[in-house]
């Protein structure tokens, strides 16, 4: 075994355990054990378990991003202090002061990438499991010979093998060999969905969840670049991965998009458009948002009474403006 195989071995064992568990569940519900749809749903179940386990890390990521926004003005002062100074002493001093600021405030610039970094080994473990199954290899864990053969031979809708990719079929087509147009169509649709979901996720952050101060900082420019860069990464790299792995990627993207929507709606960045919209929603319910983010109930009954009285007041005002009433 090479070094990569040794590192991936425990991850492959865990991936196989989850895949086999979900596959058993869907098979027990009456689905065909050898069908591609059964294995696709098992992959979706794998994503659900992995992303649910990463929720605490995601919450920590949100808190770290808030702290990064708080220290942004201080970080900008350090950068301005050493602006134009390119000597080694100035660069070391700037780096030292920046690290001291991060340590003092408990922030970590790499924390925002942590959920993605933790998913990548699982992603490659699934790729390895699917690749081994395609070549008739038994899994390292619960994926026995029978299940490995089913997984390796599984075809979505009976026409699109899960181990096949857009790039492989495109190569066969160029060489004049028999190819599967179904694989190319399904892969192309999934790439579009993956790209769109990633774009919407980034757009939510840039358009709704950034304060005016952040939009005036270099961080906003980076987010704008990511808004267009990440979808392109998915568009170009997605065609090279097997359909089974792409289903993992697409499901994870959709999870991220929905999770981001819920966070922006309920835990928006202070001063952002999403925060103002949340304050307006709470105000209509007779609630206020304190400076520390906690929700304070002011007088919910009074707010409801005010809302009920508004239409009556308008009707009375209309009656008073009638010419007959003025006489």
Automatic annotation (TrEMBL):
GO cellular component: plasma membrane
Domain of life: Bacteria
Alphabetical list of InterPro entries matching this protein: YidC/ALB3/OXA1/COX18, YidC/Oxa/ALB_C, YidC_ALB_C
Keyword Signal: no
Region Disordered, residue ranges: 300-327
A GO biological-process term: protein insertion into membrane
Pfam families attached to this UniProt entry: 60KD_IMP
Subcellular location: Cell membrane; Membrane
Domain Membrane insertase YidC/Oxa/ALB C-terminal, first and last residues per copy: 39-264
GO molecular function: membrane insertase activity
Membrane protein topology class: Multi-pass membrane protein
Listed transmembrane segments: 7-25, 37-59, 109-130, 179-206, 227-250
Keywords: Cell membrane, Chaperone, Membrane, Protein transport, Transmembrane, Transmembrane helix, Transport
Keyword Protein transport included in the entry's annotation: yes
Chief subcellular location: membrane
Protein task: Required for the insertion and/or proper folding and/or complex formation of integral membrane proteins into the membrane. Involved in integration of membrane proteins that insert both dependently and independently of the Sec translocase complex, as well as at least some lipoproteins. Aids folding of multispanning membrane proteins.
Quaternary structure and partners: Interacts with the Sec translocase complex via SecD. Specifically interacts with transmembrane segments of nascent integral membrane proteins during membrane integration.
Similarity comment: Belongs to the OXA1/ALB3/YidC family. Type 1 subfamily.
NCBIfam families named among the record's database cross-references: PRK01315.1, yidC_oxa1_cterm
The protein's name in its UniProt record: Membrane protein insertase YidC
Record lineage: Bacteria, Bacillati, Actinomycetota, Actinomycetes, Micrococcales
